[in-house]
Amino acid sequence: MSPTRSRFVQIHRSDDDNSTIGRNFKLFLLVLYLLNGEKFKHQEDLCSKKPLGPESLLLRGARLKNTKEIFGVAVYTGMETKMALNYKSKSQKRSAVEKSMNTFLIIYLIILIAEAIISTILKYSWQAEEKWDEPWYNQKTEHQRNSSKILRFISDFLAFLVLYNFIIPISLYVTVEMQKFLGSFFIGWDLDLYHEESDQKAQVNTSDLNEELGQVEYVFTDKTGTLTENEMQFRECSINGIKYQESNGRLVSEGPTPDSSEGPFYRNSLSHLNNLSHLTTSSSFGTSLENEIELIKKHDLFFKAVSLCHTVQISNVQTDGIGDGPWQSSLAPSQLEYYASSPDEKALVEAAARIGIVFIGNSEDTMEVKTLGKLERYKLLHVLEFDSDRRRMSVIVQAPSGEKFLFAKGAESSVLPKCIGGEIETTRIHVDEFALKGLRTLCIAYRQLTSKEYEDIDRRLFEARTALQQREEKLADVFQFIEKDLVLLGATAVEDRLQDKVPETIEALRMAGIKVWVLTGDKHETAVSVSLSCGHFHRTMNILELTNQKSDSECAEQLRQLARRIEEDHVIQHGLVVDGTSLSLALREHEKLFMDVCRNCSAVLCCRMAPLQKAKVIRLIKISPEKPITLAVGDGANDVSMIQEAHVGIGIMGKEGRQAARNSDYAIARFKFLSKLLFVHGHFYYIRIATLVQYFFYKNVCFITPQFLYQFYCLFSQQTLYDSVYLTLYNICFTSLPILVYSLLEQHIDPHILQNKPTLYRDISKNRQLSIKTFLYWTILGFSHAFIFFFGSCFLMGKDISLLGNGQMFGNWTFGTLVFTVMVITVTVKMALETHFWTWINHFVTWGSIIFYFVFSFFYGGILWPFLGSQNMYFVFIQLLSSGSAWFAIILMVVTCLFLDIVKKVFDRQLHPTNTEKAQLIKTNSSVKCLDSMCCFSEGEATCASVGRMLERVIGRCSPTHVSRLWSASDPFYTNDRSILTLSTMESSTC
Amino acid sequence: MAMNYNAKDEVDGGPPCAPGGAAKTRRPDNTAFKQQRLPAWQPILTAGTVLPTFFIIGLIFIPIGIGIFVTSNNIREIEIDYTGTDPSSPCSKCLSPDVTPCVCTINFTLEQSFEGNVFMYYGLSNFYQNHRRYVKSRDDSQLNGDPSALLNPSKECEPYRSNEDKPIAPCGAIANSMFNDTLELFLIGNESYPTLIPLKKKGIAWWTDKNVKFRNPPGGEPLEELFKGTTKPVNWVKPVYRLDSESDNNGFINEDFIVWMRTAALPTFRKLYRLIERKNDLHPTLPAGRYYLNITYNYPVHSFDGRKRMILSTISWMGGKNPFLGIAYIAVGSISFLLGVVLLVINHKYRNSSNTADITI
User: Fold this and answer.
1) How crowded is residue A733: how many other Cβ atoms within 10 Å of its Cβ?
2) Which residues of A are catalytic?
3) Average confidence score pLDDT of chain A
4) Torsion angle defined by CA atoms of residues B156, B160, B165 and B167, in that order, rounded to the nearest 10 degrees
5) How big is the CA angle at B128 (ends A821 and B275), to the nearest 5 degrees?
6) CA A209, A214, A215, A219 torsion: positive or negative?
7) Which residues of A touch B318 (CB under 8 A)?
8) pLDDT: is A981 or A168 the higher one?
9) Looking at beta carbons, which residues of chain B come within 8 Å of A939?
10) Pairing of strands A542-546, A574-579
């Protein structure tokens, strides 16, 4: 975040005729294009050059704040604008499930082609003899006889491809897309992911990655605003070597004298109430007056510096509501609202206002500061903008008295070396102490300029700013020249509070087998202390450091040493701290070594990271041999690159604008929501879609294999077993809804258990539900079911006996319909077996699908359809159902098919239960009986028309015990071990 | 750099909650559906819940299986191959195409009497009625009596669509290859002369086929007039309107024809030929004894290694004689029962480990 002032290109309305403006615009365009030019305000102003730089450029999305209108020129609108670039890199994210889905698809494609080739070859070996190819009763037409052999071969192959093509479930993609789109609504609807204070609910920007939430192995998180609130509170300061704490708008000194400030930190010496505002007006305080006056002067200067050296904007006008940045906060008495691009600055200015030095505003070139009601006007001469290389900013102001001051503010590492006066050593100690407490520190220094010095500076600055070549280098030189010989005033410490439940969430993530990395731009000490306080680092952890590495070889040596230490001591957990410069060294040459060290550490903290470095770290983890799934959480614009790089990008809708939220895949209001998002939603989505994919392949294998087997009985003549309407409707109508509803509603474990037992997350890690083993199981299951359907029906026919009580015979269509009926029922009931969460919707679609099949078949077979060429199915289905044997055969085949599956499931559960299966057995008190669940349309016992009760009443023995059974979800949920993450208890009674 | 600030809070962002405005929050609705809290039955397949099912399946399936098996065993069935490929067979003389018409006689003995209605089937083997080219070679509109389709049959009927520039009625390969052997059954009683068993030729086709799906062309004229302008299928001896003397069994609604038109699923198939209705309760329909079958041998199957059979069978409520279903029921029932026992043992043995719901990391 650069604390530079937001300045806008303003071209005043000129009275000149348009042609002049046009000329100026041309110049302007040229100049902007070079991003390195000069702007001519007016023709008469031509002599006074104004610098024009990157800060004059309005990026897309900019809004006018303090002016009604501006003239601007579009400089560039192509594909390399910031927006377009962001957009481009955002598009391609594919989930692991999708990737394995494509693998399966290829396997099935191979099966399809193999089946077609086998069929074609067998057809031709069979047709070698004429008695099979063209018996007297089944002659070919002239045309068929004369077509060329190769052409016939190809057309036969293609015909087989068409016949078997249903094995590639095209409807899978449609269903998956629908599932993802509809399923993603549940995240936004979740009350547990709704943040009351900010009125933010979770936001889903892409529905492609829902299931990826269940696969996360690495979490990369930003610190500021993500782990912390990003609500900066001014806490302490060190002025002239004395530490003060702020309490209720007063400064309280921490030590009795400057010398004893190294004493115990947390001693609350209330006795030394030190009201600065009081001090500045009357000097009737204290014992040693001269000392005090000196002190007061320092204090005064310190807070003046704080309230002058910034780029905070002010607004006392109530704006239209859209423009209000997230920083707005009203100061009770004066109704002043500060805006700043950095929350630290705002906190500082606000603190100064509380203490009594109120920044009123800046108009044109002056800044107004009200000191205890007395207005002072400072002329703002120059702003030396913040940049991340210098890590400081300065202003040059002219005090009302005419004195010219330079106030500088910046990171201690960049300010202290420039200081020549002030309590440098004490302040350095204080700054370190602040950092240890996890506070963010800034050092403040000043320099009084003589008018001669100022003139020199002014000239140099102007030259540099208007330089046409190497402006940046020249500016840097000038800044270097100006910001020297500073006198240290003191340091500020701003606290950034940890968000709610951050340590619990990090602990839960770790229990779920997820590695957490904290990537922050903060300094080493602050980062470590925040890491400790948020539970990222434990006290018991052995913390390894890779910091301040200057050279390649040194870095490599250090890395090897760390690796050795980890090897020696692998009982204890290790934490690793890396800083940005060391990281770039480590990544440049010793990537592998570094990754080895990192993988063996249970917690990694990277501090002093540039945004691009964050993204690079993630990329490295992504392409490491295990190809883990990464998730990045961040809240600011500097996290965007990492959010986009990671497999799943989560934006925190925090105080730092919405850029992260908009570029993310999912946006949540608080870090703690991550646990529900991953452990509950991620887990569910993964299970749902994994089963969806497997089931789809399974049901299409069931569907098409009988057709393949039938070819062996019909001379490979491509005769279809099922009627074409059944072929079409199988995937669309008969079997589509149960799986779709399953994939939207399934909850194989109670969500509370999932959330309370993060270890369950490990059960689905590494895409386990879509491993080759499970895939093979489903495929083999599909084939075996298909064999049972087909050969069961074949054996039922035996020597083609009559199946009807009147001795009449069935034909080929009845045979196909028998197979199809068994298949529809089996496939639907198989889905029912997979379902662990039977709401009335599930009941409706599952039994409804079967009923629909019967009703449809009655209807379809009951009419001679006028527009159909052949009436193959006329009364076939009804005849089939009028056969007792057919009914018995259907029941037998369905039971046999499911038998295999049930036996496998039960034995697996009995002999090697997984954690998930164990967790399913945990009794929850929200158990609904099967019959009841059919007619429970919403929550509450009252709406649950108990079928059982109704039956009992009808039979005439109403038992009150049944009614008293409670299952309302508002009951206090069980508090089992480690119930560390019960978010909000459910408020179901309010609906 | 300076623009970061401006780019950040863009239009869609806005204040988190508009102060003073309508109390419109973005709070999601607290409904059971949206919170995924719909009341639900949550069944879990554990040994405990599945065990009773296994036993119940076993207990239900085994008796059903035994019942079906016994029923199937009580069905009498005799199959007589009269293809004549065996030189000793009386019908072997008919294999050569020169002998026309060829009549042969096969003797057989019924060891047990057939009671109740007896059904006479003819069976063909290696005859691929389910070949795609064959199955689709028909015109259902023509068979339904559509006058336009009668004179202009569907293209699917090729190459049996027209002969000598006249449309074939009924067209197509199926109709063309209609079975045309005539079977007669005689009982050789104690007397010197055999008695002809009366064979009923109606009631062998599906009622809906005979009355709805198949119809002669409309009109009150004699059938010959209605079929004017068409020609008989190439392989037929007589035109379609001469299939039977009775008018309600002639033309497209001839039941032998309808039965043939229902293509079989597998290359070995049977088709119902005639019914032998039981006379009264005292006498069996076909008493045990010696019979002979008189065959007018027309249908050539030798060229494709086919076989021809005549089957006499009684029928139970669930169809013809097939032990498969009964055996399968008994087998599945027994396996289910057995697995139930195995599960019971396992459940008992591992009770401790499975009942505790501790989750190991």
Assistant:
1) 15
2) 222
3) 79
4) -70
5) 75
6) positive
7) 803, 805, 883-885, 888
8) A168
9) 32, 37-39
10) parallel
